[in-house]
Write a structure and sequence with these properties.
It is a single chain. By secondary structure, the chain is an alpha+beta fold. The chain has 4 domains: about 60 residues; about 90 residues, 2-Layer Sandwich (Beta-Lactamase); about 70 residues, Helix Hairpins (Orthogonal Bundle); about 150 residues, 2-Layer Sandwich (Heat Shock Protein 90), CATH 3.30.565. The chain has 12 helices and 13 strands. The strands form 3 sheets. Strands 2-1-5-4-3 form a 5-stranded antiparallel β-sheet, with helices on both faces. A 5-stranded mixed β-sheet has the order 7-9-10-12-11, with helices on one face. Helix 7 runs antiparallel to helix 8. The longest helix has about 35 residues. The chain is elongated. It starts with a helix and ends with a strand. Bound molecules: adenosine-5'-diphosphate.
Length: about 400
Amino acid sequence: MSLFLGILASILLVLLVFQIRQRQQLHCWLETPEKEIPDGIGAWRDLFSKLHQLRREERKERQSLYSQLGHFRKAAQAMPNGVILLDENNRIEWINTVACRHFGLDASRDIDSKIEHLVRQRKFYEYLGNFRLGTVQEPLILSREVHHSTRILSIVIVSFDKTDAMILSNDKTEIIQSEIAQKDFIANVSHELRTPLTVVFGFLEQMLEDQAQVENPFLPLMISQAKRMSRLVEDLLTLSRLENSSSPLLDDVIDIPGMIEILCSEAEVLSNGSHTIEIEKIEPIRIQGNADELRSAFGNLISNAIRYTSEGGVLTISWKLDENCPSFSVTDTGIGILPEHIPRLTERFYRVDKSRSSATGGTGLGLAIVKQVLTRHQGRLDIESEIGRGSIFSAKLPSDRIVKI
Ligand code: ADP
């Protein structure tokens, strides 16, 4: 009996030692999972083989995640835009080669640095600050000196993953330089045309005074075409002056009601009694801005209303507050405009009906000038129109331009 108990105890001891060893092997492997999984015996074999299988699957998944990540990184590297990923403290988490080139950064050196310490430009700093405050913004145009050449970048910042941010940069140097060259060319050509036009006018005026020439049937046509060309040259010069960002906006205190009075009497002359010109409401609001520019913009709106409203039509002019913003509007009972044309009206030379516009003596630049003037005053042009019934053109200015009396 005691022999039997002795054998049983020895078997139990062997089994216990075996279990402890297997447990130890499992424990060891859990501590250093990079080692091979041990071979088990019995139930332990099933457990180890299950673990083996799980580990294989996990490796495969990890491999696939790595390859996807690598794929995304390659895609972001291949993008023609610069990409910089920032954490919530504006530290650089990742940057692609194009962004390194745009901002003069080095991926291996600058990761984890704060972007404001590397791109030390006030405009950029403010833009980033406004983005963090949640203000929606237009793209920022930023000039950067990189490797002794000036690049003009268009920058946008978008948020992702709650607090992280992504900076996207686009090199616009060539496009902007070609736009500048185009504008300079137009300004120069217009300027050069001024003198010959003055000479032609001089001769035409002399011909008008010459009895032998006054009967010439071509003379009125020559005079009207010369006048048209002169208006075109003047409008082109005005537009290039307005588009030149270096020309400063003079901030006079303007008596708009007084200005409207003068514009209305000019409108009466232009209409020559063919229209009724009414004043709906003129509030005594004075604003800060450039008087010459605003006179030209408001005058253009009135002259358009006259030119695109047939005889007997009514024009209504008002100057009042619209949601606290000063607004100058001209309402007419004219031909109206189809909705598809409205977004394009402020483009240079965009005309709904080309033949009609040239017959009315327009240059095709009136609304482009209005838009530029309003943009320089942080304002905007609103257009409402219905074909056959008329239009409302409203020039809206920001409330902070109001001068308190
Ligand atoms: P234009 O010299 O041709 O009048 P503008 O830039 O002043 O050039 O206007 C652009 C176009 O917008 C015009 O050609 C015309 O088709 C349209 N337009 C402008 N104002 C009015 C209006 N009050 N009523 C109808 N159409 C208008």
